[in-house]
Amino acid sequence: MELKKRPLLTAGQIRKKVEEIAQRISADYAGRDLLLIAVLKGSLIFASDLMRRLTVPSSVDFIRARSYCQTHSQGRCDFLLLPEQPVTGRHVLVIEDIIDTGLTARCIVDYLAAQNPASLEICTLLDKPARRNVQIHLRYVGFAIDNEFVVGYGMDYEEQGRNRPDIHVLLGD
Ligand code: 5GP
Ligand code: MG
């Protein structure tokens, strides 16, 4: 069944933004070795496009977490996959597809911070500031968007749509 959707960002707009972010990261981390921690599954496409545009030496690892809202500002999360490499003493950049309530990113950052990285920042392609429940600093943000559910460029609706090169808003009936 084809779901109703409205175009939000074209592949060209995304490509241009990824290039801009990659240039900023490359300048900010010049002379340092970066460890990218891509948050699966949604950041798969963003992370792979971004890392190919970086000019600083960088390695990549993965994390996967599922967060549960408990109260308005508190959450819990389960880790489904943890990074293989230790992050202690490394310059870590967490790569996210979208920050919504902020709970998942908060859990991931708290987990990584406990291992004493040399630095720890977040890079997200999309941000929904209206939905934020927990305070979290986002060093790199591609696009701030309204409170709408989006699919494409790695982001899914029931596991479909990740392979679309553009981003759409999913519309209700
Ligand atoms: P948070 O913990 O910030 O509320 O949610 C983060 C995760 O929820 C994101 O990494 C993403 O996997 C999922 N998510 C939040 N908003 C959207 C959306 O609009 N579309 C899709 N496909 N996933 C979303
Ligand atoms: Mg995600």
Describe the structure.
By secondary structure, the chain is α/β, with parallel strands linked by helices. The chain has one domain (5-170): 3-Layer(aba) Sandwich (Rossmann fold). Helices cover 23% and strands 34% of the residues. The protein has 3 helices and 9 strands. It has helices spanning 11-28, 44-53, 103-113; strands at residues 5-9, 34-39, 58-69, 75-81, 91-99, 119-127, 140-144, 150-151, 167-170. Strands 4-3-2-5-6-7 form a 6-stranded mixed sheet, with helices on both faces. A 3-stranded antiparallel sheet has the order 1-9-8. Strand 5, helix 3 and strand 6 (119-127) form a beta-alpha-beta unit. Helix 1 (11-28) crosses helix 2 (44-53). It is globular, with a radius of gyration of 16 Å. It binds guanosine-5'-monophosphate and magnesium ion (MG). The site of magnesium ion (MG) has 5 residues, from strand 5. Residues 39, 42-43, 96-97 line the site of magnesium ion.
**CA gyration radius, whole angstroms:** 16 Å
Helix content: 10-25%
Strand arrangement across the biggest beta sheet: 4-3-2-5-6-7
CATH architecture: 3-Layer(aba) Sandwich
CATH top level class name? Alpha Beta
How would you describe the shape?
A: globular
Task: Name the ligand types.
Answer: guanosine-5'-monophosphate, magnesium ion
Largest sheet: 6 strands, mixed
The proportion of residues in beta strands is: 25-35%
Ends apart, CA distance between termini: 13 Å
